[in-house]
């Protein structure tokens, strides 16, 4: 994943605010703990999907990740996943999958994970803001995505260090010209400009700057099988799902 690097002026993170702030220059690996709402879904200590912390007890992630409350756990507030121990994992007690979910074709592919207890918000862990359900998406927004997916097509292992990339949003019309009618009004597309989400990045947040904070505009849903950087990445459009999120979380998110 082609990415960016920030300077290292540090202050406590607020909702929707990265811990590392300042100018962006070319790079690949994200600075340590720079996206404090980024979540790694883990199976026996191995990353397999991403997610975003949207409330103290709630994580939003793709339904196809098939998170299990019995065998899986979560890591929140860390950039480096090497030497993850069972004691590092945060358990979830329930999974709520969108009732309209279908995998082929991909439809309403979101799940909410309810943590066993609320996480502590602090210097390294914070929440990401959600857009309003009627918010229009500005295609000129400054947007980023992040995750621990593979960094080269057909590479066998996920990255141990979180990677970040700038995302150029593209119109639904342009996206349909590439992917066809699989693109719905519940999707938003980005990329196709030298960076691409890849295996293991599913669930990574599409976070766009809005009034000085980042909003969770999308969640990585699907894209090119071989991670072609010229192919648009398809995200679940979060604004469409605000009513469902509010109903499941009891208004916490």
From TrEMBL:
<comment type="similarity">
    <text>Belongs to the peptidase S1 family. CLIP subfamily.</text>
</comment>
<dbReference type="InterPro" id="IPR033116">
    <property type="entry name" value="TRYPSIN_SER"/>
</dbReference>
<keyword id="KW-0645">Protease</keyword>
<dbReference type="GO" id="GO:0004252">
    <property type="term" value="F:serine-type endopeptidase activity"/>
</dbReference>
<dbReference type="InterPro" id="IPR043504">
    <property type="entry name" value="Peptidase_S1_PA_chymotrypsin"/>
</dbReference>
<keyword id="KW-0865">Zymogen</keyword>
<dbReference type="GO" id="GO:0006508">
    <property type="term" value="P:proteolysis"/>
</dbReference>
<dbReference type="InterPro" id="IPR009003">
    <property type="entry name" value="Peptidase_S1_PA"/>
</dbReference>
<keyword id="KW-0378">Hydrolase</keyword>
<dbReference type="Pfam" id="PF00089">
    <property type="entry name" value="Trypsin"/>
</dbReference>
<dbReference type="InterPro" id="IPR001254">
    <property type="entry name" value="Trypsin_dom"/>
</dbReference>
<dbReference type="InterPro" id="IPR001314">
    <property type="entry name" value="Peptidase_S1A"/>
</dbReference>
<keyword id="KW-0720">Serine protease</keyword>
<protein>
    <recommendedName>
        <fullName>chymotrypsin</fullName>
        <ecNumber>3.4.21.1</ecNumber>
    </recommendedName>
</protein>
<keyword id="KW-0964">Secreted</keyword>
<dbReference type="GO" id="GO:0005576">
    <property type="term" value="C:extracellular region"/>
</dbReference>
<keyword id="KW-1015">Disulfide bond</keyword>
<feature type="domain" description="Peptidase S1">
    <location>
        <begin position="24"/>
        <end position="250"/>
    </location>
</feature>
């Amino acid at each position: 994943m082609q990415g960016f690097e920030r300077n290292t002026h540090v202050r406590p993170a607020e909702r929707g605010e990265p811990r590392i702030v300042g100018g962006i220059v070319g790079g690949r690996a994200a600075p340590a703990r720079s996206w404090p709402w980024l979540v790694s879904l883990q199976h026996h200590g191995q990353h397999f999907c991403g997610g975003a912390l949207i409330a103290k007890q709630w994580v939003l992630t793709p339904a196809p990740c098939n998170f299990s409350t019995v065998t899986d756990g979560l890591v929140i507030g860390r950039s480096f996943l090497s030497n993850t121990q069972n004691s590092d994992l945060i358990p979830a007690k329930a999974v709520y999958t969108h009732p309209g979910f279908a995998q082929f074709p991909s439809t309403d592919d979101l799940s909410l994970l309810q943590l066993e207890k609320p996480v502590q918000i602090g210097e390294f862990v914070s929440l990401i803001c959600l857009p309003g359900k009627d918010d229009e998406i500005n295609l000129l927004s400054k947007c980023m995505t992040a995750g621990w997916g593979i960094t080269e097509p057909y590479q066998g292992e996920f990255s141990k260090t979180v990677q970040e990339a700038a995302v150029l949003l593209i119109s639904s019309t342009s996206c349909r010209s590439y992917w066809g009618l699989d693109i719905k009004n519940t999707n938003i597309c980005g990329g196709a400009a030298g960076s691409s989400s890849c295996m293991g990045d599913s669930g990574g947040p599409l976070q766009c700057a809005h009034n000085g904070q980042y909003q969770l505009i999308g969640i990585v849903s699907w894209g090119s099988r071989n991670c072609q950087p010229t192919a648009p990445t398809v995200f679940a459009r979060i604004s469409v799902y605000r009513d469902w999120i509010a109903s499941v979380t009891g208004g916490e998110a």
